[in-house]
């Protein structure tokens, strides 16, 4: 049995480099950039009016002029115009190019317009309400760095610089496997000794949130069937997530079959609760990474969030965030087991407090819906007390 | 001009009831339940072994017996067996039904098995390692309430109770409209006075995270075209998000066209920065709700998160979460404008601190990628100082 810190380190030693591919901008939400994104021009690309009103030359202001003949109208989308006389003005709309010979915008609210002349109702300051060319960024500046997760704001930037297609990290091909003869399909009415599959559906939904469309497969508890199927799966996928089949039961064939298929065991059994029988290995020739989780829902869910997600993020070049929260209630984590305790978070005047969620053993499916994460407690003799700062792993 | 609190209240007074529809379980991630979900049987549905080992009758323990003849093997997925003699045992695997006449499980780690007999190496406690039938929930219990957002944990529960199809809230049909003659497609090379569309792509990506596939449409600054197109759009969609065309410019036709199309103006212009020219209205016959945002990226993004998302969540029956954070740096919010300031959050030993993100006016597209939310500051003479608790709206 290995301790939690060693198990976690070993998982992160076996990340995969999955390479990069091109996706359309509209398909890129949630993906991870595999290239730096540069400004293809200055932003803004021209001296841009930020108000509706008139564009004037500040020299006229210095000369004490406060009433301007309107020469023309400049609206957004029109090529740059030219103020022919600096004592005149051009009406200008937000987003329009400030005309040549003009450098200052005065908004309608500060103007009276009559008989083709605009008169200032308030002093204007040279350069006001102009967003100068290149003042946000100059052409060639890196706007988004490689390894950035693409969200709505990033999509705005990518659109602005014309990236209708872009290089993103490839996602792993993932196979999610359930084992156990007691499992039947969701649409079936189970016999008294049977239960419906649920872990694989939970895992597939969790993977979907990472943009991964996983393939769910069920294996019956039959050693030769499992061997045959797994052999094919190891060749086809980058990563295999199994749920069940790694305990000490007579029908828990997974560790044995993995050995047969030359999947190198990195570790089996971690000093943790829940999820102690976790088996982790790598097929060195195929480079397939295998996460074999114990079959009960809370164990599978905890191990997925504690080990698989950091492995995935690390493989994609993302930073792994560590969050700390205040514990609101005593919790015991006696040696030698590290504990993952389901909690519900509460933002209490700017500080994050977590309440442990009552659970009825690791087979308790319903407790997961009442929690939004796990806290990770290192083993120690003394109980963890109210107000202690502990590590938190979000699941919602 | 209306103040922020009134504008926010008025938006929430115009939520829509969009009804419900059936989706397949595999498609339900992120959707909102439109029905209560009940346990269709007890959970666990039988007395379930939680360890691999032997099942015994605790009466034998009381009689001082500590070595048990093995009668049979019970594995997960097998119908319930019966211990014929309470002085014997049945080998049992995790997930299996505890046999009739047995009530206690002893794991292999606490046993020595030799010549068809299992001998206890440690005292056993009556009932140990059995997860009793109905101890999590009894049949008929509400497991998930209507208006719950469905995530991976909820999908596990839904699968367990056989909901291969389920009733969820319908999402609004949303049309996202850009206006402005200066805009060109992302794939085009803009002329010096042009810029590429970006707001609509940002908005569509943000809506995609809510499960909404929005239709992006561009309207040129031509009043009769806008009127014609909008008339059709108002009939086709539940909600229209516009970006641009609501300022005081000569080509900002939206408010006028809305009036022509009998879209009742609820308000136009809010005492806030950014996003002051925000126009909000409802077509009472069609019940179409129109959010018309000012055209610059930061204004659109702020208004979407400040107004549209709470409106959407409220329409779907979700609770709107209020988060508070500590401000790390002085910020000015002079009357009469409420300010939305872009910030980056930092979990500092369990407390959430936000740093204002330097921005260069509301036309600054790149600042959004450096922030993870907005803080909302009510107007007041005195500057907001370091350590003040302020309201936070997440955008990432």
TrEMBL record, chains A, B:
Transmembrane segments: none
Keyword Glycoprotein attached: no
Enzyme Commission designation: 2.10.1.1
UniProtKB keywords: Magnesium, Metal-binding, Molybdenum, Molybdenum cofactor biosynthesis, Transferase
Magnesium among keywords: yes
Coiled-coil ranges from the UniProt annotation: none
GO BP annotations listed: Mo-molybdopterin cofactor biosynthetic process
Taxonomic lineage of the native organism: Bacteria, Pseudomonadati, Bacteroidota, Flavobacteriia, Flavobacteriales
Similarity comment: Belongs to the MoeA family.
Role summary: Catalyzes the insertion of molybdate into adenylated molybdopterin with the concomitant release of AMP.
Catalytic activity: adenylyl-molybdopterin + molybdate = Mo-molybdopterin + AMP + H(+)
Gene Ontology, cellular component aspect: cytosol
GO function term, MF aspect, one: molybdopterin molybdotransferase activity
Cofactor(s) this protein cannot do without: Mg(2+)
UniProt cross-references to SMART domains, sorted A to Z: MoCF_biosynth
The name this protein goes by in its record: Molybdopterin molybdenumtransferase
Domain (MoaB/Mog) ranges: 175-314
């Amino acid at each position: 049995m290995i301790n939690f810190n060693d198990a976690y380190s070993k998982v992160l030693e076996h990340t995969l480099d999955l390479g990069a591919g091109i996706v359309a901008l509209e398909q890129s939400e949630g993906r991870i950039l595999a290239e730096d994104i540069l400004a293809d021009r200055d932003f803004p690309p021209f001296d841009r009016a930020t108000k509706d009103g008139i564009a004037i030359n500040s020299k006229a202001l210095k000369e004490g002029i406060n009433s301007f003949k309107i020469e023309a109208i400049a609206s957004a989308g029109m090529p740059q115009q030219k103020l022919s006389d600096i004592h005149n003005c051009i009406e200008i709309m937000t987003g329009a190019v400030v005309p040549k010979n003009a450098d200052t915008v005065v908004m309608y609210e500060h103007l009276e317009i009559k008989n083709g002349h605009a008169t200032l109702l308030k002093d204007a300051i040279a350069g006001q309400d102009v967003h100068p060319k290149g003042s946000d960024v100059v052409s060639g500046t890196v706007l988004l760095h490689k390894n950035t997760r693409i969200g709505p704001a990033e999509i705005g930037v990518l659109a602005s610089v014309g990236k209708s297609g872009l290089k993103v990290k490839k996602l792993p091909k993932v196979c999610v496997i359930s084992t156990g003869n007691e499992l039947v399909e969701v649409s079936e009415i189970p016999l008294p000794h049977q239960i419906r599959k649920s872990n694989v559906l939970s895992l597939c939904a969790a993977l979907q949130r990472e943009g991964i469309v996983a393939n769910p497969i069920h294996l019956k508890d039959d050693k030769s069937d499992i061997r045959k199927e797994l052999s094919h799966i190891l060749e086809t996928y980058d990563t295999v997530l199994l749920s069940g089949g790694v305990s000490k039961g007579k029908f828990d064939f997974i560790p044995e079959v993995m050995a047969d298929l030359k999947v190198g065991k990195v570790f089996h059994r971690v000093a943790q609760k829940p999820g102690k029988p976790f088996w982790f290995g790598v097929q060195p020739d195929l480079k397939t990474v295998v996460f074999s989780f114990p079959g009960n829902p809370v164990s599978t869910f905890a191990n997925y969030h504690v080990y698989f997600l950091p492995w995935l993020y690390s493989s994609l070049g993302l930073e792994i965030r560590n969050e700390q929260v205040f514990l609101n209630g005593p919790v015991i984590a006696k040696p030698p087991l590290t504990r993952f305790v389901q909690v519900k978070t509460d933002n209490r005047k700017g500080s994050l407090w977590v309440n442990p969620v009552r659970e009825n053993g690791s087979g308790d499916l319903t407790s997961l819906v009442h929690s939004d994460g796990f806290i990770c407690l290192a083993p120690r003799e003394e109980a963890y007390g109210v107000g202690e700062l502990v590590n938190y792993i979000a699941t919602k």
